[in-house]
């Protein structure tokens, strides 16, 4: 037996996210730390010994940290201190997914269908599936007239949607000086305006019932700008701010806090959308900035729906640091761009997803 084949899969799966997951259940986990001072105490150490005192203090600090984090989540979601929300009844849900014919949207649609969820897929091309409870509606979600017409059909045929997943996306990968007017219109139409149109069509029914969930699939590039992605970054940044404003409107003005909102900000996903970019594949980059499979995003969406909490999800772990990178000195900010190869990843990009009729001959 080849010895190398035994160890390679382990190192292939070793990345920062796995390390963080292990640490969160050990060094940063109160349950694990709780037993350290107890162990030394029963080994004969006194309660005043450093081996007992320091782990005990660290345990208290960890408990305070997790308590504050839990309290913040509870407050944001108007939760009860003693009672969890009722179980999420998957069989009663009608889920609308934009861009559901490929990539993350397709996998999410099929995964939900297995749970006997009624799914409505909005896309310009049909979804290939054998699941009978996936309903396809041809729709260019960048156009309000088409979304409005399809929304009426969905309400008549399936009922009012209880979950809307705004997932549709397109990327041009061009310099600002090379972007055509049609490029920019398509980017903002699909990546930004479609969110407004689906919310305008489906949100009023959720507000009336004070029940539902809006999932906004954004991007880490809505947090940090990179070269050759100006339109994409701007469209996703707009979506992030729209999502935040929506939360305040639901809580303060509509008085519908039980309509939950989840913002997903992933890094590079292994889908056709970014398949032709020059993403760094060195061991360092694979460890720090791994490409995530679509199933990781789908799991996070399903978990968010199951939790029935409003939240922001950053995938993979390094994306959590991006909001803070903006506050670094300029030379450190540029260093971060250089280390991640962010400004050069699109040099050889070829658009393969979301091609318009005028681009298909190119």
From TrEMBL:
Which Pfam family is an annotated match for this chain, by its short name?
adh_short
Any stretches that span the bilayer, and where are they? 22-42, 51-68
SUPFAM superfamilies with a match to the protein in the record: NAD(P)-binding Rossmann-fold domains (SSF51735)
Q: Which InterPro entries match?
A: KR_dom (IPR057326), NAD(P)-bd_dom_sf (IPR036291), Sc_DH/Rdtase_CS (IPR020904), SDR_fam (IPR002347)
Q: Which residue intervals define the domain Ketoreductase in the entry?
A: 93-272
Q: Which UniProt keywords apply?
A: Membrane, NADP, Oxidoreductase, Transmembrane, Transmembrane helix
- Which protein family is named in the record? Belongs to the short-chain dehydrogenases/reductases (SDR) family.
- Entry protein name: Ketoreductase domain-containing protein
Q: Which organism is it from?
A: Marasmiellus scandens
